[in-house]
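Open question from group meeting: does this chain pack into something compact, or does most of it stay loose? Before anyone orders reagents, we agreed to write out a predicted structure and look at it together. Recording both the input and the output here so the notebook holds the full record.
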Amino acid sequence: MSRRTDLLQQLIQSDKFGDEKEQEQKFLAATAELILTDLINIASNGVLAEGAGSLVINLCNDSTTFMSGTSLESDINTAEANEDSDVVEFLRKLLEEIDENDWSKNVLITLISNAGTRTFAVEAGGSQESFRALAAEFTS
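Structure tokens returned:
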């Protein structure tokens, strides 16, 4: 089991009440911040090694990979050859977000789930603020 999976399982477990529940929630927030910090570091390392791109987390098949702009262009060509319009649309949109990102401040993290795909510009070095922004997106 991956470290991310272990941490996420810890995050969702709770059978506490009162003050104990409050302490547990603080721990859960710290755990989530740790996960986000790890993801930011992986994305930052991907940018340094391969150039502008996005850390793509596919929750459908539990895979994580860094996709550079160059690899996205290659994947677009393959998807076009296979006439897969949904994949072409997703990859072009992601490439557009890569082109528009402020790399002096943010890294990109893309989540893929059965509910759809979403790319977040996450402030590198500001995991607490980024966590709050991501949490607000999911609770709105």
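Observations to bring back to the group:
Residues 38 and 64 are 12 Å apart (CA to CA).
The beta strands are 53-58, 63-68, 106-113, 116-123.
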